Each structure stands twice: as structure tokens, then as C-alpha cells.
Amino acid sequence: MNDLVTCMKTISNQVSSVIVVDNGSSNVDEVEHTLAKYKNVIFEKNNSNAGISKALNQIFEAAISEKYDWVLTLDDDSTPPSDIVARYLSILAESENVNARTGIIAPLLISKTTGIVSHSKTDQDRCITSGSLTNVDAWRRVGGFDEWLFIDEVDYDFSARILKAGYEIIEDTSVKLWHKVGDSKSERFLFWHRATGNYTPWRKYYQMRNRIVVDYKLQRYSPFKIFGLLIVRIISTILFEDDKRKKISALFRGTKDGLIRIRGM
Fold first, then answer.
1. Could you give the CA distance from residue 16 to residue 23 in angstroms, rounded to a whole number?
2. Alpha helix segments (H runs only) across 66-173
3. Per residue in 249-258, is it b (16+ CB within 10 Å) or e — as a string?
4. Are 161 and 127 in contact (CB under 8 A)?
5. Which secondary-structure segment (H or E) carries 263?
6. Cβ atoms of 44 and 21 closer than 8 Å
7. Is 192 buried (19+), middle (13-18) or exposed (0-12) by CB count in 10 A?
8. What is the dihedral of CA 75, 108, 40, 32, to 10 degrees?
9. Cβ-based neighbours of 232, under 8 Å, separated by 6 or more
10. pLDDT of amino acid 101
11. How far, in Å, CA of 153 to CA of 206, rounded?
12. Model confidence over 160-189: pLDDT tens digits?
């Protein structure tokens, strides 16, 4: 709740409307009470957790009904800088050509737990949704977010389709978004040093399952690559994370269900 309050204080005076979707939170009454303090909030409540992809589509549908051209998407635990909107608008104002070709503008990320700065655009066509400014027409053109994915790889699948549709994804390195990545921590084993998300078992399941399906959708699937990824994630879990047995079991179940899914596609 503290993260939501901080986010609202920072972003509410930068935009004309804040669209909030609650995905079946147990403290939804508290959330609604907190948001009631802000006059420019559109609040939508789901009775159960419909998934991040469904919630994102709801946000864009609401934006269309309000006749907005761009949507800044934020997780409830992300803290944007006080000038994020102004910085993004300055990029769009550079020329009409940039405006027309731009699908997404993404920030750099600062981990709230480790302080590590990382790219939200991790590849040419991969960027996360939190902190990103997205072209509403581009969202409509690619058919929105894939609601079957539910969570994990949702943003990467979407951004890849955005690029494939002929839009650009721009990373604005002047914008740094404080963001929580799982229960991340920095770990070292002998000469191997890495930051691990330390995600819960159910997130491990979706990460593995959806990676297989998204790779297949984007024609990048390779059984050898998936096997290698599974091994790396198992080793990383054993070396650096807690609740190892449940997480490794989730990785195997995710792999099995992902393979079942692509056989039927």
C-alpha cells in the first residue's frame, strides 16, 4: 500500500487521468479509500485475479473510451520520477515522424532492493510495461496483450509484436524508474555473481511455461534452447534461492505445460 501511495503522489499531478485496475486484491476497500483522495482516478475492480495481461487491456480500453493517444503503464510497486511525463513528451515533440513511428518509450530501471540499474529494454524488441509509454493505436493494431499468458512474458510478447508491426521501441536513458523485481537480491557463488529475482514457485511456473509459448509464437522456439534455459534456472535456484524443491518442481511443471500448449497451436 505504501508503494501505491508513493506512486499516486508522484504521478497524479503529471497526467490528466490515472486508470487503476485492482485484480481481486483482498484489501480492495483500502485501495479504493486511498484512491478516493485523487479526483482524476478511474478505478476498475476485478472480482478475482484476472492476470496482468487482462488488467493492461482494461486500462487501454478505458484510455480509448477517454480518447487518449498514449498510456503510461506502471506497476503498483514502481516509483516514477517527478518529470517522467515531461521527458517522454519532449521525445514525442522532436518531430511528427518520431511520433508516428514510436510504439513504446521505455526507461532505465533501478532495483528497489539492490539499487542495481538495468535496462527495461533488454533487447531490440523486449521491454517491460512498467514505466513505459505506449502508443494506443499500436496496442490496437497488434490486438492488445495476450490474456492467456496471465503473467510473465506478457510484456515481452507484446513489445515484440509492436516491433514486428513496424513501430519503434525507444529507451530513454534519462528516465530512471525505481522498480521492484520479485524479491531480488545480489548473490555470489565462487566466481559467479548475479542478481536473482528469487520469485515464488507459482511465478517460476509461469516464467517457464510462457517463455516456451512466446518463443514459439515469435518463431524463436528451439528445444535445445529451452532445455538449456531449464538447466540454468534449476542451477541458479539451487545455488542462490530458498524454497528450492517447490521452485524446481514449478519449473518442470511449467516446461511440461508449455510444451503441451505449443503442440496444440
1. 23
2. 84-92, 96-101, 136-141, 154-164
3. ebbebbbebb
4. no
5. helix 244-263
6. yes
7. exposed
8. 20
9. none
10. 87
11. 8
12. 999 999 999 999 999 999 987 655 555 555
Distance, CA of 230 to CA of 236 (rounded, Å): 10
For cell 496471465, the residue is: 150
74-117, pLDDT tens digit by residue?
Answer: 998 889 999 999 999 988 887 666 677 899 999 999 988 778 88
What is the Rg, in whole angstroms, of the alpha carbon atoms belonging to the chain? 19
What is the distance between the terminal CA atoms of the chain, rounded to a whole angstrom? 40
CB 250 within 8 A of CB 201: yes
Counting other chains too, the contacts that 9-14 makes at CB distance below 8 Å and 24 or more residues apart are: 10/79, 10/80, 10/81, 10/82, 11/72, 11/74, 11/80, 11/84, 11/85, 12/38, 12/40, 12/41, 14/80, 14/82, 14/83, 14/84, 14/85, 14/86
